[in-house]
Amino acid sequence: MEYLYKLLVTLLCLGPICWSSQAAVVDLERASGSRDWWQVAQFYQIYPRSFKDSNGDGIGDLQGIISKLDYLKDLGVTATWLSPIFTSPMADFGYDIADFYDIQAEYGTLQDFDELIAAAKERGLKIILDFVPNHSSDENVWFQKSVRREKGYEDYYVWHDGYLNATGDRQPPSNWLQAFRGSAWEWNEQRGQYYLHQFAVKQPDLNYRNPAVVAQMKRVLTYWMDRGVAGFRIDAVPWCFEVLPDSEGRYPDEPLSGYTDDPDDSSYLKHIYTQDLPETVDMVYQWRQLLDDYQRVHGGDTRVLMVETYSNLDYVMQFYGDHTTKGAQIPFNFQFIVGGQGDKNNTQMNAGGFVKIINSWMSQMPAGQTANWVMGNHDQRRVGSRYGEQRIDLMNMLQMFLPGVSITYQGEELGMTDLDISWEDTRDPAACNSNPEIYEQFTRDPARTPFHWSSELNAGFSTSSKTWLPINPNYVSVNVATESAADSSHLKLYKQLVQLRQLKTLQYGATRYAAINDNVLAIKRSLSGQQSYVLVANVLDTSVSGVDVASVLYASGNYKIKLLNPEAKASVGDSVTLNNLTLQPYAALIVESV
Ligand SMILES: *[C@@H]1O[C@H](CO)[C@@H](O)[C@H](O)[C@H]1NC(C)=O
Ligand SMILES: *[C@@H]1O[C@H](CO)[C@@H](O)[C@H](O)[C@H]1NC(C)=O
Ligand SMILES: *[C@@H]1O[C@H](CO)[C@@H](O)[C@H](O)[C@H]1NC(C)=O
Ligand SMILES: CC(=O)N[C@H]1CO[C@H](CO)[C@@H](O)[C@@H]1O
Ligand SMILES: [Ca+2]
Ligand SMILES: [Ca+2]
Question: Which domains are assigned to the chain?
Fold first, then answer.
């Protein structure tokens, strides 16, 4: 398929200095009109298992979320997306769905869910659900019917005979690998065929070449919209479609990537036949159509689609849609996760590195679309662990200051950090499928530990003697109660940042950004008739002086400090001269024109 629409944003770059003229034009146009709710929303990701346990079993649940909605409202959150809450044997903590139409019993019931929607609505909060289209659980009734070849379900999943080799041993249909180590094909004795699972063995891939599957998944979306959800975050999108088999029914082997010698590691192969197919983009367009049609018939606010894809940006940008067809409003921008240093340890990244990341999205986003910024999620190391603990506030400031949608993973507002978890306590299948020597490379558990509500037992998360994952001992100081009571804290600054984002200048203003030198990242937001704001951040652990931000950003005149991190060692209201700044290590300031 050709994507002719790809209009590059006009981007002027002089050395490290970039100015997105397109953003300026778009922003000025929009200033006279209005923005849809999601364009100015504060999104928040809840990982339900670790948010709040209401009944003392050590596992978070829906009543727990309901009991904390006031916290979200107080934070200034407008919409929250929940990782999966559907019936599941929990082989991949809910990303293996046994019943797409019901709630996991340990999380609650459909009544609890309806209560959640109603309680959220009372507070003006929107609920977005995780939609996991690529696969179901092997315990899903669809899969069991497919195993038995029941009428209508024969081709619900991707089945294949495989081959016999010279010595008569069975071989899988192709060399494809699952994301969690090992072959993507599993032999099913009962049906006498292999099935495809791009994730765990217990996550068979649904067959999107079958119109009945496509229709079924659209029914799932409609069902939850009927129950009042404001949209969906679509999981693992790039994996939906695989290449069709050839005329002899053979699936092609994928070529070696050369990245690793470990033949079980999914990055051993280049996934040219199993990921990022054009059919997948078209499927997302169909889902957007379904959501828009739903709104036309039933009214209410725009329903949103957020798309999870770690693919290259050319592919990601296609999800926004093209000239004729709308796509997802929010294809997740993971540049702060995948960009930077290869090992995802970005603690040494300099200002140029930050600008490169910002620029990668701003320069490739199609004209007229809204940017979004995702700093972390339940699959990644926490921001403080990836970027350094002294940059926790700096990263929140950056995320809130950049133009477009901001999406926070639970706990980042507190500055939660990774907890190293022993092999015995490890729960994530991505790690459990490996071994005690190497599991730490694969585990996603460190960022999934229970949320810290207070300095009480189990961080106020649960009254149980044991929680499903251990709690980070730093909870005694890093928690909601303590940080709310403190004069200054990550949490307090976060709330102020959410408030700051309400300013017209931040919602509509033009954006100019630059690396002034290795240390200093500077971003200016401006809108005619409004005050201008400048974020200045020293991203390194050395102090700098005599820094001239003013001439590069055209930010002459007087400025005073609006918000800052403790590293800045200054005070709100202090006046600053942007043409001759001194910045402490990791200092971050947001200043406003006076
Ligand atoms: C056939 O497959 C079996 C099991 O995978 C393997 O042990 C055997 O060496 C293979 N035989 C040949 C001739 O490749
Ligand atoms: C990241 O790298 C820095 C310096 O290279 C090191 O001190 C730090 O421990 C690393 N952090 C993690 C989480 O690996
Ligand atoms: C810049 O500020 C320093 C003090 O921080 C001062 O000594 C110096 O004279 C200033 N330079 C200019 C050009 O204003
Ligand atoms: C970020 C995210 O939600 N990733 C998910 C992608 O899909 C797999 C399989 O459904 C999950 O294991 C990940 O958590
Ligand atoms: Ca519970
Ligand atoms: Ca698939």
Answer: 2-19+37-133+214-244+275-497 (3.20.20.80), 134-207+245-274 (3.90.400.10), 509-593 (2.60.40.1180)
